[in-house]
Design goal:
Blueprint: H1 2-8, E1 15-18, E2 23-26, E3 42-45, E4 62-64, E5 82-85, E6 93-95, E7 101-104, E8 108-113, H2 119-127, H3 129-139, H4 149-153, E9 156-159, H5 163-201
Parallel strand pairs: 3-7
Antiparallel strand pairs: 1-9, 2-8, 3-4, 5-6, 5-8
Length: 203
């Protein structure tokens, strides 16, 4: 894809670092299904919500009325937290939305970056097909595909100490994401109009 070629074939990004050099993967919480409610204040983000699109899909979330006492601070998600699916379709990456209070479930990893200015660049790198391929390769051999902390943190990625280059790459790819989101909304409107037309046609 475009992101793969812009990042991995970029001569200005000749240095290689590992994710553990710039951040840490943090785990989710093992929520008990018996505590779920039909109308709660908090939404639990599971691997099914991390689709690989820019933002998590929140149409299907289990809800909680109150936060467990032993919940860790990072498990209360913040806007734009980078989330990674660790089971099933491993290596999918999405950002957290801002419209609700979201909680991090087990088997979803949160990659916590040491340097905030690298956030968009790291998200774009992890959104590349190469990351998914690497995680799928690491998960081979098990009955159900699973990856862990070491698999993610040892992933090697293109880098440079020149922050302006990283910023330019990030802005370019972010602009594509914005355009994709806009086109999706237009497509949804056309599909809705078509549905309404067909419904009225056969009344």
């Amino acid at each position: 894809g475009i992101a793969d070629s812009i990042i991995w074939s970029n001569k200005n990004l000749s240095k290689r670092i590992r994710l553990k050099d710039i951040g840490v993967l943090k785990n989710g919480y093992a929520f008990k299904s018996s505590t779920y409610v039909s109308d709660g204040k908090f939404s639990i983000i599971t691997i099914s919500n991390v689709t690989g699109q820019r933002y998590i899909d929140t149409r299907q979330c289990n809800l909680l009325m109150a936060i467990p006492e032993d919940l860790q601070s990072h498990q209360i998600l913040k806007t734009n937290d980078i989330l990674i699916s660790l089971t099933g379709n491993v290596g999918r990456v999405s950002l957290c939305k801002e419209d609700r209070k979201y909680l991090l479930n087990q088997r979803v990893g949160l990659f916590d970056i040491n340097e905030p200015s690298l956030h968009e660049y790291i998200f774009q790198v992890l959104s590349c097909h190469r990351f998914v391929q690497s995680m799928e390769s690491a998960a081979q051999g098990a009955a159900q595909m699973n990856i862990g902390k070491n698999d993610v943190e040892n992933f090697s990625l293109p880098f440079t100490t020149d922050k302006s280059i990283l910023n330019n790459v990030s802005l370019c790819l972010r602009s594509y994401d914005i355009k994709i989101e806009q086109e999706k909304r237009v497509l949804q409107q056309y599909n809705l109009l078509k549905h309404i037309f067909l419904k009225n046609l056969f009344i």
